[in-house]
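User: For this week's homework, look closely at the record that follows, marking any run of repeated tokens, and judge whether sequence predicts the tokens.
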Amino acid sequence: MTRIRVERSGAVGRIVLARPEKKNALDLTAALELQEACRAFASDREVRVVLLTSSGADFCAGADLGALYAMLDADVATHRRDADALGDVFRALRDLPQVVVAAVRGRALAGGAGLATACDIVLAHEGAVLGYPEVRVGFVPAMVMALLRRQIGEKRAFELVATGRQVGAREALELGLVSRVVGDGEFDAAVEQLLTELSALAPEALQHTKRLFYDLDGLPIDEGLSLAAQVNVEGRFTSAFRDAVRRFAKQPPKP
């Protein structure tokens, strides 16, 4: 792979954006490599949590404008393939059975902010900056809108994509773009601690939780509760749950 690195360490899988000289900008090759990495982890039963991180000062500055310039005169089908490839990355991250954690340092802009938005948990360095500035270069922040408006609400999402303004980590937390903001001296340790905690949990419980969380999106209450009951029953037949109940049942009663 030329755009990313894929690493495994025990129960933790890592996808590292590895084009620091281009601020980890995304092109078709990068999108296809990210899809390949997701497919590999999806079938890896040893990996319980996946980290999406980056090399260099920035998480990802968005689309590779040089690549877009090279294909300006391409036909519609070529441009559609390029756009679909990034959308497929967002789907792949969301569809991974494992929880996906994004560790965001520096700038995460346009498609780079989209990558973070597509992850399940986002830890942001206190100096991180996120934004969807496509309109400022005459473009449309199209792909990310399918995710963004669901996460932070219509008014907040529209203001971000319509103005293209960039927000610091603390405002991103207030908006709901990130899960947690961590100080400079604590960031790496906080990321590793979260990965350790997640990888120690029962994998089936985490997988059921993630699947149900996103499957509930847009469902009426009655359908949502019915689906939740189905997943509840499935969870009762996992070995981790049954072992936990047995241990609890054998404990002596507290006075």
Summary: The first helix runs from residue 28 to 42. The beta strands are 4-9, 12-17, 49-54, 99-104, 107-109, 121-125, 129-131, 166-168, 180-182. The chain has two domains: 4-200, 203-250. The mean pLDDT is 94.
